[in-house]
From TrEMBL, chains A, B, C, D, E, F, G, H, I, J:
It is an enzyme of class 4 (lyase). Coiled coil: none annotated. InterPro entries: Cyanase (IPR008076), Cyanate_lyase_C (IPR003712), Cyanate_lyase_C_sf (IPR036581), CYNS_N (IPR048564), Lambda_DNA-bd_dom_sf (IPR010982). This is Cyanate hydratase. It catalyses: cyanate + hydrogencarbonate + 3 H(+) = NH4(+) + 2 CO2. One of its GO terms (molecular function) is cyanate hydratase activity.
Amino acid sequence: MTRDDVTQLVHDAKRKSGKSWKDIAAAINPSVSPICITAALLGQMTLEKAEAEKAATLLGLPADAALLLAEIPYRGSIPSMPPTDPLIYRFYELVMVYGTTFKELIQEEFGDGIMSAIDFDMTMERQPDPKGDRVKLNMSGKFLSYKRY
Amino acid sequence: MTRDDVTQLVHDAKRKSGKSWKDIAAAINPSVSPICITAALLGQMTLEKAEAEKAATLLGLPADAALLLAEIPYRGSIPSMPPTDPLIYRFYELVMVYGTTFKELIQEEFGDGIMSAIDFDMTMERQPDPKGDRVKLNMSGKFLSYKRY
Amino acid sequence: MTRDDVTQLVHDAKRKSGKSWKDIAAAINPSVSPICITAALLGQMTLEKAEAEKAATLLGLPADAALLLAEIPYRGSIPSMPPTDPLIYRFYELVMVYGTTFKELIQEEFGDGIMSAIDFDMTMERQPDPKGDRVKLNMSGKFLSYKRY
Amino acid sequence: MTRDDVTQLVHDAKRKSGKSWKDIAAAINPSVSPICITAALLGQMTLEKAEAEKAATLLGLPADAALLLAEIPYRGSIPSMPPTDPLIYRFYELVMVYGTTFKELIQEEFGDGIMSAIDFDMTMERQPDPKGDRVKLNMSGKFLSYKRY
Amino acid sequence: MTRDDVTQLVHDAKRKSGKSWKDIAAAINPSVSPICITAALLGQMTLEKAEAEKAATLLGLPADAALLLAEIPYRGSIPSMPPTDPLIYRFYELVMVYGTTFKELIQEEFGDGIMSAIDFDMTMERQPDPKGDRVKLNMSGKFLSYKRY
Amino acid sequence: MTRDDVTQLVHDAKRKSGKSWKDIAAAINPSVSPICITAALLGQMTLEKAEAEKAATLLGLPADAALLLAEIPYRGSIPSMPPTDPLIYRFYELVMVYGTTFKELIQEEFGDGIMSAIDFDMTMERQPDPKGDRVKLNMSGKFLSYKRY
Amino acid sequence: MTRDDVTQLVHDAKRKSGKSWKDIAAAINPSVSPICITAALLGQMTLEKAEAEKAATLLGLPADAALLLAEIPYRGSIPSMPPTDPLIYRFYELVMVYGTTFKELIQEEFGDGIMSAIDFDMTMERQPDPKGDRVKLNMSGKFLSYKRY
Amino acid sequence: MTRDDVTQLVHDAKRKSGKSWKDIAAAINPSVSPICITAALLGQMTLEKAEAEKAATLLGLPADAALLLAEIPYRGSIPSMPPTDPLIYRFYELVMVYGTTFKELIQEEFGDGIMSAIDFDMTMERQPDPKGDRVKLNMSGKFLSYKRY
Amino acid sequence: MTRDDVTQLVHDAKRKSGKSWKDIAAAINPSVSPICITAALLGQMTLEKAEAEKAATLLGLPADAALLLAEIPYRGSIPSMPPTDPLIYRFYELVMVYGTTFKELIQEEFGDGIMSAIDFDMTMERQPDPKGDRVKLNMSGKFLSYKRY
Amino acid sequence: MTRDDVTQLVHDAKRKSGKSWKDIAAAINPSVSPICITAALLGQMTLEKAEAEKAATLLGLPADAALLLAEIPYRGSIPSMPPTDPLIYRFYELVMVYGTTFKELIQEEFGDGIMSAIDFDMTMERQPDPKGDRVKLNMSGKFLSYKRY
C-alpha cells in the first residue's frame, strides 16, 4: 500500500460519508489547523499516531492506512507542474507574477535569506464582501538568514 | 526598448541611488501598495501615466522607459520555472505541497470556482517573534464561481 | 474510483447505448448547455446532484459514479500538452498564433486585465456554407480588471 | 533584419505615436479585420505589399521592415508555452479544460475531421453587461473531413 | 475498454494469425488504401461500421472492439516525442532538417497557407534499385490558403 | 561568423533581390534539385565550393559566407520542437499520426531496418486539382537492414 | 502481451536460472554476437524464429513470448532520457562531451554524411590492466554519404 | 571572453587557414591523440600551457584565447539534447538502443560499477570495406567498482 | 517482479515491523554502513547474497525479492527531477547554488577531473547544537583525473 | 550591468591575474570560508560592502561591479539542469541515487522536517590516500522541523 492509495481511500470514504474536511479535521484533532489535517489526509503532512488511528476509524480505513498516515510522506501533491487545475494554477501564476517582487521586498526588509516553507503556518477564511466574497489567506513563515561561515 | 530593458534600467538606477523599494514606491504614489509599485517597476504591473513619469524622473530613466512603465506588460517575472532562486522556490514548493489542500478547502467553503489572481491584493510585513522574526503575507482574492450556461 | 474511471465508464456506456452527447445532455438537463453537461461527463465540470443521478441512471453507471459526477473535478482533460490530437491541436495553435493579438486588442479595449475562463460561456453550432460547412464557436467571458491596492 | 526586429520596431513606433491598434489597422486597410492586420504587425500574418508600405509610412519603419511585413512569417507569437501571461494563459486553459469536449461535440456533428485554423476567421467585441462587460469572441473555421483514400 | 486496448488486441491477434497487414487490410476493404486501414487498426483512423465488424471477425476481437474501431480516435501513435524508434525517428529528423525548406518552397509556389494533413493521401511502395531497394513514399495534401477576413 | 548568420544574410539578400528560391537555385546549379540548394542556403546541406562562390556572388554575400556555405553544417533547422509554425507542424503531426503505420508497413515489406534519411531524395510539385491544388511530395530513401553480427 | 512483458519475463527467468547472458546467448546461437542476442532479449533486436523458440525453451517462456522475440520491436531501452543509471549515463556523457569532436573528425575524413547506427557492429571485452582492468568497446559503422539529387 | 567565443574563433581561423583538424592537432602536439586536441579546441578538454600558446600562434588567436584553452572548460558540446544533428544523433540513438545491453554485459563481466568516462581513451579510424568504408571507433575506459563502506 | 516491487515490499514490511532502518541495517550486516544497506533496500545498491537472504528473512520477503536485492539495480531513486519532496529538493538546490563553486575549488586543488560518485563513501550523523541540532554529512570521493591519450 | 556580467568580469580578471580562488578569497576576507567568498564571486552569495570593494580593487572591477557583489543575487549557477559538466553532474547523480536514502535516514533520526540549505556550512579539503587522493566534503545544515499549527 502506498500513500497515494491512502489518499484515494480517503477520497472514497469521505465521498460516501458526506462529511466535510472541516468536520473530519475537527473530529481528528480540533486543536490543530484543518489545513494541517487535510494536507495530511491528502498525503502531504504527517498525523500523530493517535490522530491517524482516529482518522482510520472515522473513515473506515484499513489498519495499514493508519500506519501510513503517521508516516512522513514523499511530498508533492500536484500530478504535474504547471498545475492543469485552474484553482491551483492561480497560485502558480502568483509565483510567476509576484516572485521577483517577493524576493526584492522580503530581502530588503530582512536581508539575505528566505521565508521558510517548513516553519510555516497558514489560515484560510471567507472574507465577506458586497462585491463578492473573497478568499483570505494569511501565511507566516520564519525568516531564515543565509549563514556565512 | 523592451520592458526587460526597463527592468534592467530600474535595477541599475536603484543600485546607484541607494534608495529602497519602499522609499521609491512611496515617492511614486504613497496611496498605492508598495507591492503594486515594485511589481510594476519589475515589469509585472502597470503604472498610471503620472506615476510612470514620476518614476522616470526619480530614477533618471529615459522618456521611452516612462512610456513602457505605463504600458501593460507581458507578465511572467521568473527566468525559468521551477524557479532556481531559493526564496522564490519556497513559494513554488508551497503550491506543490498545499495545492490540493487549497483546492479542497476553498471549494468546500465556496463551491466550484477559483480564487482570482486578478481581483487580488496582498500585504507583506515583518512579524516580530522571539524565536526569530517571521514574514507575514496576507492575500485576498475574490472568489469566482464557475458559470453554468 | 477516480474521476478518470468515471469518464471511462461514461465512454463505454455511451458507446454501447448508441446515444449522442446531444441526446444524453438533453436528457440530463435540457436547460443547461450541452457543452456544460458534456464537459462534466468528461470530467471537467460539476453536475448538480439530481443531474448526476439522472446521468447515472441513463447510462447505467454505479452509485459511486453519480457521487463523483457531482464532485468538483481536478480539471485538465488533455493527456499531455501540446495535444497530439489534430482537432484539439488546432485550438492550441490558435493560441500560439493569435495569443499576442488577443492580448493587444482586448487590453486596448478594456484596459489591464483578462477575459475570465471561469465566468465564461460558449456555444458551438454548424454554419452552413456552400464552400463547406463551418464550425462556429461563440465565446463570452467576463472582463476582469487587475485590481490596484 | 528579422521579423522579430520588425515586431519590436512596430511596438516602439506605436508607443511613440500614441495610436491604437484599431486606428493603425483602419489606416492600413479598413476593409480587412483589425485582428488580421494587428496579427500581421505582430509577426503572425502577411500584409499585402501596398498595406505593408502604408504600415511602414504610417509608423515610420525602414524600407526593410515593409518588405518583411509582406513576407510570410515563421508563426508562433508566444515566447514560451505554456504562456506565462495571464490573459493569454486563460485561452490555453480553455483548451486544456474544453479540449476533449470540443472534440466530442464537433466530431459528433460533423464526423471525423477538424476545424481549420487556416480557413478561419474571428471577431472580437465588447459585450456590455450590467454585472461587468464581457469579451465576445466569435470564431468560425471550415470543417475539414479526414480523407479516406 | 480503450482504443489502446484495442490496438494491443489487434497486435496480439495479428501475431497469432500470422497474417500480414496487407492481407488483413485487403480482407477488410480492398478498395481503401492499406495505409488507411492499418492506421485505423493502430488507433489512428476510423473504420466504417461494416469494416470494423469485418476486422473484429477476422481477428477474433470482442464486440466492444468493433465499436471502438468505428469510433473517432484520440490521435497520436508515438509513445513519446521525439520517437525513440530509429525507423520513426528518421521521419522526425526529416522534419527537423527539411522543415524550413518545405516552408520556403511550398509557400513560394502556393502563397501563404499550409499543406493539409487532413485532406491528405499517401502511397508507399518498394522501389527496386541495384544499389539497394528503396522505400518510396508519395504524399499529396491539399493546399489550404490562410483566409483573410 | 556562424552558419546562422549566413542564413540570415541569405534571407536579407533574397528579400532585397526579389528573386525566388527556384531562380536562385537554378542559377547556382541547375542540375541539382532546388530542394538541395535551398536547404543548403538555409543551413542544412553543403554546397560545393564553386556553387558556394556562385551563391555568394549572386546574393552579394561576404567571402566568409561562401566558405561557410561549403562547410558541413550542424543540422537542425527548426527553432524549437514541436514546430510552432503551422506549415511545418503538419509534417510533425503526420509523424505522430502515421509513425507506427510507417513502421509496420515498411518493416513488413523490407524486414528489420529503416528508411535512410541520408541516402534520400525528394521532389515537390504542384498537383492541379479542381477541388483545390495539392502539394505533391515524392520521397525515396534507401532501405537499410539492421546488421546482425 | 507486449515486448516489455517479454523483457520482464526474460529477467525473471534468467534470475531464477542463475545463467549468465553469455551462456544464454551462446545456447541460443553461438555464431551471433552475444551483444545482438542480449539486446534482442532486452527488446531491442529481432531474433530469428528458431532462435526465439530456443530462447523460449531455454528460459521457460510462454509461446507468445517466442513470437514476440521474433517480431521487430519498438526500440528504445532507457526508461527516460537522460538515463538515471550511472553506467548508462556515462555513455550519454560521452556523446555530450565528444559529440562535436566526432562530427568534425568523421566528416573531415569521410565528407558529409553519418556513421550508420543500423549497419553497425560492436564488440565488448575485458582489457586487463595493472592499474585496473578496462572495458574495451570496438564499434564499427558503415559511413553513409549524404546524397545530392 | 568565454570558452564559446574561443571555439567560435577557432572555427573562423581554421576555415580561413584551410587546415585540417588532423594537421592542426599534429602541429600542436603530435604525441597526443588528435581526438584530445580537437576536443580541447572545441571547448571540451584542456590544453597544456605550451600547447595552448602553440595553438594560438598557429591559428592567430588573441592572447586571452590561449589562456582560456589552458583552462578547464565547463563541458557539454551539444547545443541541446537530444542532438538535432544526424551524425551526433546516431550516437545518442546507440545509447538508447544498446544502453541496457551495455549495462547487463559490462556488469556481468565486471560486477557492480561503471566504465569511466574520465579515465577513458579512444581512437577513430577509417576501415576500408568493399561494401563501403566504415568508421571504426575503439573506446577503452577503466572499470570502476562501486565502493561499499 | 521488479526492483520497484521489492522496494514497495520492503516499505510495507518495515512499516508493519516497526523496526528502524538503523536496526534493520545492523541486523543485515553491522560492518557495512547503514547508508549502503538502506540504499540497497531502496533499490539503489547491491547486497551480497548472504545479506540479501538475511534481509528477506528479517522482513519476510519472498524468495524472488532476495534474488533481486542481490542484483545490480537500474539506479535512480527519485520519481521525477527536480525532486518534489522538500528534504530531497534541498540537496538539489545545493547543486544548483554551489555547483560552479565545487567545480572551481575542486579543480583548482586537484587539476582537471572529477570527484567519483562510485568510489565514494559517506557518513551521516546528528550534530548537537544549542541553536538547534544539525545534520552532518561527510562525503569522500576519489579524485579521478581526466586521462590524456 | 547584471550579476552574470560581473561573474564574467571576475573570470576574466582572475585569468589574467593568475591568482587562485584560495588567494583571492583570503585577500578579500581570511576569516570567512573560501567557499563562501568564491560562491559570491560566482554570483551565488552576497559579499559585505567592504569585501566587495576589496574584491573590486583586487581584481580591477568597475565600481558597479562592487555594488552588485554586495547585492543579493538571483541564485542558480548552473546553465541548465541536469548539469552537462561531468564534475557537477556527479553531485546531481548523488541526489538521484541517494536522495531517498537521505530522506529515510535523516527523518528517522530527526523526525519530519528537512536539512536547511540556508543555515548551512561546508568545508572542502584534500584527503591524501595511497590509492589516489580523495575530495572530502563536510556539510552541516540545521535540521528544521515541520511546524504543526
